[in-house]
Amino acid sequence: MKKTALVTGGTRGIGAGISKALNEAGYSVAANYNGGAETAKKFHEETGIPVFCWDVSIYESCEKGIAEVCETLGGTIDVLVNNAGVTRDSMLHKMAPEDWTKVISVNLNSVFNMCRVIIPSMRDKKFGRIINVSSVNGLKGQVGQSNYAAAKAGIIGFTKSLALESASKGITVNSIAPGYISTEMTEAIRDDIKEQIRAGIPVGRFGRVDEIANAVLFLADEKSSFITGAALNINGGQYLQ
Ligand code: CAA
Questions:
Q1: For the domain that residue 165 is a member of, what is the CATH number?
Q2: Ligand 1 centroid vs 80 CA: distance in angstroms?
């Protein structure tokens, strides 16, 4: 039977690339989305991947959404990719409290919500692959991203803890830390800043979505069973640790 995979924020940007790659690799994939109904509809028409709308920052919505996904896919979730994320960039001295709360809720609380709902079935089955999407900026910080960097750094600590809890149950829990990837999110950065960032990437360019999706496929593989608690840099050499 095909393995099932659920990707949050899975209909655009990096998430869409991950959903498509898993689908092409033979997984039975579900893509969650919240904003962008038109994009989600188009994504579904192009790929045939079923799409599910709910807000991952709300626990009850995750319970309901995941139940719907399992019913559609006909089984529990084998591979969970927590990719959903937003930015509300601003210097801290100008940051609105709502911009702090929004980014922490969508980028970090969502990871708790999704894992909390799905982990019991993975423990029962004694198999699971959880891949949480952090960021280079969760490791190094970035001007204007105290909210985003806090959430993305939080994901790494969460991942390591859940990896330890799950290690004896056949479940691996890893995070990936993408650098700057060409998507709508990075397109929104002011041109002069974008150029300054690009100049600091040793590979000399922003990354591509497929370069992230490829790493997710690797971590999702059954054979990657000895890799857990890792935080994998995928950033063109921008920040090495
Ligand atoms: N390093 C050091 N200082 C910097 C800097 C940097 N990279 N960028 C800006 N500054 C300094 C500026 O020189 C300026 O200093 P002064 O006040 O002394 O002149 C100060 O910080 C304020 O900068 P701005 O003039 O740009 O301030 P602003 O209020 O107009 O804009 C901002 C603030 C919106 C945060 C803007 O700086 C910005 O967009 N920064 C980029 C944020 C970023 O990288 N976002 C990533 C989005 S994509 C993503 O998040 C995906 C991922 O995982 C990588």
A1: 3.40.50.720
A2: 32
Report the predicted TM-score, pTM, of the whole model to 2 decimal places: 0.97
**Are 227 and 172 within 8 A, CB to CB?**
yes
Please give the distance, rounded to the nearest whole angstrom, from the Cα atom of residue 194 to the centre of ligand 1: 10
In a domain, 83, yes or no: yes
Nearest CA to ligand 1 atom 3: 143
Whether 239 is covered by a domain: the verdict is no
CA 11 vs CA 8, 56, 176: distances in Å: 8, 14, 19
Q: Which residue, judged by its Cα, is nearest atom 7 of ligand 1?
A: 143
Cβ(162)–Cβ(131) under 8 Å? no
Question: Quick one: which of 28, 10, 150 has its CA closest to 79?
Answer: 28
50-107 pLDDT per residue, tens: 999 999 999 999 999 999 999 999 999 999 999 999 999 999 999 999 999 999 999 9
The residues, ordered by sequence, that sit 6+ positions from 240 with a Cβ below 8 Å of its Cβ are: 233
Domain that holds residue 70: 4-234
Question: What's the domain count of the chain?
Answer: 1
187 C-beta neighbours (distance < 10 Å), count: 10
